[in-house]
Write a structure and sequence with these properties.
The protein is of the alpha+beta class.
Length: about 270
């Protein structure tokens, strides 16, 4: 997902996505942008904020009629350019849960979701402002594991079990979405599928990138991964633009600025502390 910085041709999807976002921001006319980033991991079915002071603190998933699915207490960090995005990601990456197995000396022991929330206000020809909002979820899934190959025991085996269960739940959700006949989509079977509910069957476009091994002894894993990705490819959503969302931070900031201006000009009394 991240690749390496040198040579530039081997940079990963994530840094390229950062560049694409801020390149689009830089050329937009008559438009203001507000961009925030957040970074979390799902470790043993516990949600942790990788950018918080206490990264071991467990967070809860909540649902709001307007906001939809969100993580209560997840920190949001304003970013203004590619370099700031990369610094935020590097800070969170250091806090991810990793461990050694026979297949990987630095194996990821959790799923992670780096989210970029973007709001934009565009002024039309009549001078009216229109707010749009969207988000980009960059999801790094831990790979499924076979105990016979990884040699996992104790805590590593427990981690692998949780990883496999959540990936299985994700596969079930994808199958139900592709099937088209299912009356129930099992989003609540895992924290991963619950968090990705909007990304899978909501108002979104979804892209899955599969990492494969060229080694012949990984043939079964490669085939399984390709089948998994093929199912995800068949999800069909019809996303719509999020016009004028009620909870837009840009609107809240604009209202606050207007209120402060009114206080400075004496139109509104300045509150005093007693």
């Amino acid at each position: 997902m991240q690749g390496i910085d040198d040579p530039a041709s081997q940079r990963g999807i994530i840094p390229r996505a950062f560049e694409h976002i801020f390149e689009s921001v830089s050329v937009a006319e008559n438009t203001k942008f507000l961009v925030h980033a957040s970074y979390l991991e799902i470790y043993n079915e516990d949600i942790r904020d990788l950018l918080a002071k206490d990264t071991k603190n467990k967070l809860e998933i909540k649902e709001h009629p307007e906001r939809g699915i969100y993580v209560q207490g997840l920190s949001m960090h304003p970013v203004h350019n590619v370099a700031e995005c990369e610094r935020v990601m590097a800070r969170g990456w250091k806090n991810r849960s990793t461990g050694a197995t026979l297949m990987n000396s630095d194996s990821s022991r959790s799923h992670s979701i780096f989210t970029i929330n973007m709001e934009m206000v565009k002024i039309d020809a009549e001078g009216e402002e229109h707010i749009r909002a969207g988000k980009l979820n960059l999801v790094d899934l831990a790979g499924s594991e076979r105990q016979a190959k990884t040699g996992a025991t104790g805590e590593r085996l427990k981690e692998a079990t949780k990883i496999n269960l959540s990936l299985s739940a994700l596969g079930n959700v994808i199958s139900a979405l592709v099937d088209g006949k299912s009356t129930h989509i099992p989003y609540r079977d895992s924290k991963l599928t619950r968090l990705l509910q909007d990304s899978l069957g909501g108002n979104t476009k979804t892209l899955m990138i599969a990492c494969l091994s060229p080694a012949d002894n990984n043939y079964e894993e490669t085939l399984s991964t390709l089948r998994y990705a093929n199912r995800a490819k068949n999800i069909k959503n019809k996303p719509k633009i999020n016009e004028d969302p009620k909870d837009a931070l840009l609107r809240q900031y604009q209202e606050e600025i207007e209120k402060l201006k009114a206080m400075l000009t004496g139109q509104v009394p300045i509150p005093t502390c007693k």
